Amino acid sequence: MTTRQYRLAPDRPLPRPVRxxxxxxxxSFIRRINSANVLTHGELIKTMCRDRRPWMYDLATWNGTxxxxxxxxxxxLANSHPNPRLREN
Length: 89
What we know:
By secondary structure, this protein is mainly alpha-helical. It has helices at about 25-35, 45-50, 55-65, 65-75. α3 crosses α4 (about 65-75). The protein is globular. The chain starts with about 25 loop residues before the first helix and ends in a 16-residue tail after the last helix.
């Protein structure tokens, strides 16, 4: 008999959403999500790598917020955003 493992789905929110801090790194933010939701190290990253879209959209869905919030809070994401008004110069 095999046991079923719980797999994260990128299309639903996590039980405990986490808001990003200003100028927070993505690594720090993912670490805080893991801690708040009692996830194993690397579980979120594996799920984000399965998807072909930019992973800030998965982070936004899991935390019940808009991707633009992450772009404004995390400077390293600003250059990859399609909206030129939100990009860093």
